[in-house]
Automatic annotation (TrEMBL):
Reaction equation(s) it catalyzes: chorismate = 3-[(1-carboxyvinyl)-oxy]benzoate + H2O
Name of the featured protein: Chorismate dehydratase
Role this protein plays: Catalyzes the dehydration of chorismate into 3-[(1-carboxyvinyl)oxy]benzoate, a step in the biosynthesis of menaquinone (MK, vitamin K2).
Similarity-based family: Belongs to the MqnA/MqnD family. MqnA subfamily.
InterPro entries: Menaquinone_biosynth, MqnA
UniProt organism field: Thalassoglobus neptunius
One Pfam family here: VitK2_biosynth
Zinc is among the record's keywords: no
Pathway(s) per entry: Quinol/quinone metabolism; menaquinone biosynthesis
TM region positions: none
Amino acid sequence: MINRNRNPERMEADSTWTHQTIRVGAVSYLNSRPLVESLDTYQPEIELSLDVPSRLADQLAGGKLDVALIPSVESFVDSNYRIVSDACIATHGPVLSVKLYFRVPPGKVKTLALDEGSRTSAALAQIMLAERFGVHPDRIPLPLEQSTSDTSADAVLLIGDRAMHTPAESFHSVWDLGEEWVTWTGLPFVFAMWTTRSGLDLHGVEAVLQQARDLGLERINKIAIDGANALGLSQDVSLHYLTKNLYFKLGEAEREGLKLFRRLAAENNLIPQMNTLRSRRHSSTDSLARA
Ligand SMILES: C=C(O[C@@H]1C=C(C(=O)O)C=C[C@H]1O)C(=O)O
């Protein structure tokens, strides 16, 4: 986990410093760079840490973070959660970084390996297979350090930076889960939202998250170049990812998409499983596999 420590010189110079640190957790992938790039420009009290989405959800639930960019499906399962910003990670079509790789036709999938960093896309993959093909595969955890070649599952879910690269193996077919959802429902899909637990005083972080997103979008060219260099992508792909594949604003259409996702997650018994998963934080994907 990366911790960006506060700059003591800036803290001294800042007359609004209240000695109140807000612990903010964001996704460690390129997709959230525009949301966090300039966060501490606005508010030096923010202590930012980066991690994979599933761990952020566990850290928010366990009180280790005050605000986190958690998987949208996690925000459905705790009535104490509050969405604090219209900055989010969404898509209106192909998302590029959430892929389901098939070794057999979708209707024949019996085993499904799920990226341990994911909660939302893990639910989305199961919803798509159940609703469109009537299949309910056995779920197998795919550890973060493993990739498609480390599992013999019939279908493999990968998310984040590593899902943007094409694997060496040639698959029966590959779904971009953003594209599949948007084509199937006609609605955008929201992967992650800034979420807090009720009752916390965030000292204005809500507005800061929005301003940071707006400033991040103004600096998108630089973020795309940095991302391309860090991940070995072309600058065109990186810029297209950040400006066309991803969408960072929670508006009315995105809320409609969320509502439908929530209903389908409940109908497919994925939300109670998420509850079980939360109370067993250290064996989360085990409980998914058992459920
Ligand atoms: C688009 C993405 O969205 C992510 C997918 C998430 C999930 O599957 O739980 C959660 C947060 C987002 O970072 C991605 O990771 O590529």
